[in-house]
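User: I want to check something. If I give you two sequences, will you return the structure for each one separately, not as a complex?

Assistant: Yes, each is folded on its own. Here is the first sequence with its structure:
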Amino acid sequence: MNGELKKHITLIPLILYGVGTILGAGIYVIISEVANASGSQFPLSFVIASIVAIFAGLSYAELSSRFPKSAGEVVYVKQAFDNKFLNTLVGYAVALTGMVTSATILKGFHGYLNVFVSSPGWLSISVMILLLALVAIKGIKESVLVISLITLIEISGLFLVIYFGSAHIDKLPELIQKWKEIGFNSSIFIGAFIAFFAYVGFEDMVNTAEEVIDAPNVLPKAITWAIVISTVIYFMVSLICSLALPLEVLKTSNAPLVLVIEQNSNLSPKIMGVIALVSIVNGALVQLIMVSRMFYGMAKIEVAPKVFSKISSRTNTPIVATIFTASIIWLFAILFPIGNLAKATSLIIICVFILICLSLIKIKLDKNSPKPSFQVSIIIPIIGGSICLLFLGNYLYSQL
């Protein structure tokens, strides 16, 4: 059962892997929650969240080029601070984020499944997590192929929403005027804090490093492209939804993108329902793979139980880590509501991003540190860490 992960992943599949988990974790599941927090200005919340993601993502891109290892965040913090307690804390925080994200996504899956058939939430979630675990155990090559194909399907679904919803584009001046009247207020940032959950995913890419061909060059490019593509799609879809659906309907819908198609085209809403379902499954699968690789990498550097480093000689995957991860995801999905899960995820990941930015700053200030193939100005992690800190402070203040 001991062994090493095999390198199978190239640039395009890795970009699709990243885009797939970002989109699957976000716009299909969380849009109603963001609308509830920010009201009609919720597209602006996605823009603010994207700014945070871009600065953090560029920091991840350089670190992934310097240290292309599984358990990426743990490795980065170890290289910067060499503190075992801090390494362990970051590792479990990232793993927790991935598991909570996957649980949130699976709850969204149940919401869209109700478009077709009514079933108990625990049953649909249980069946899906079992299937995803089996795919993840089968192998990374097969998993990435499935993820890439589903990503193309989910992008096509979002373009359908944009295309049919664009019939309401004439309402844009009215919406902008409404934004001006309301003004730029704290609710936008509260919504952005929730919307940031939608960007969880690009950091998952670094945990596949030991399975990426030419990772020091490929990972930074893939991370950057995944964030840019997702940001453009998020803003377009959230804007279209704000124009095409009444705010009160949007706030209460479990499947808002299906409603846009249903009310603005002759297509069966079930078409969008199917696309949404497979997209949500995609996001959950990526998170499951990421967390299992995180536990694998942590076990290799002795900050997680050694059993998680066991690799199957037949599938070249960490089976024990995968089964453990799937079990915890299942518990979270069964026990907690979607809004609380999303907020918890954003809170944890923002804290991790602050630490990652600090790690890159410290590493770049070390004159003996080797120069990677991809570098950013030290201003990038300074701004990224500062924005994350302000973001976190604003959210915590709003909760007082």
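And separately, the second sequence with its own structure:
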Amino acid sequence: MNRLRQKYQKEIIPVLKKELGVKNELAAPRLKAIFLNTGINEPQGQKEALKEMSEQLAVITGQRPVITRAKQAIADFKIKEGDPIGLKVTLRGQRMYDFFEKLVTIVLPRVRDFQGTKKTAFDGHGNYSLGVTEQLIFPEVSYDKISKTRGLEITITTTAKEDKLAMRLLELLGMPFAKPELAKGKLSDERRIPRRKDNLS
């Protein structure tokens, strides 16, 4: 069993039960799923771009992504209904915990000038979104083996019905939220995370 999953069951659930004043551990919020999405719209080499990014996401998550397709045509972008426009990975169970632990303990700390993630990136329903500008922040991706940097949106869904409960859950799981005095610093926009140290030009 994943170390973080064990910590949740043995250490975090008791804390949440005490803070919420409940006796049933099923009432404590927990991670539900993690979604990774990336959009790819390249007039030239779309098929190759999808293949390359698919391989990278598979290495990052340990799971093959699925292709997302346009639900309707967009003339301005020359996109027809059903055209492939990106990739998506849905992580649950063991892989979800593995990815979350890697994200908070290895990936985010590698980001240059990282000062924490925003506490305001919740959607009002207990789900948290984190945008990164390039896949190179993941150590599995080699700078020499990519043709183009691409952004990713990471959405962490929980069973919490309120954002404050979801925030407390993620905090206990290790999410490095920004301190109040740093909340308006360089990472005021969650999607503007710079590339990792060892791949700066």
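Because they were folded independently, the notes below concern the second chain alone. The CA atoms of residues 69 and 84 lie 4 Å apart. The longest strand covers residues 31-39.
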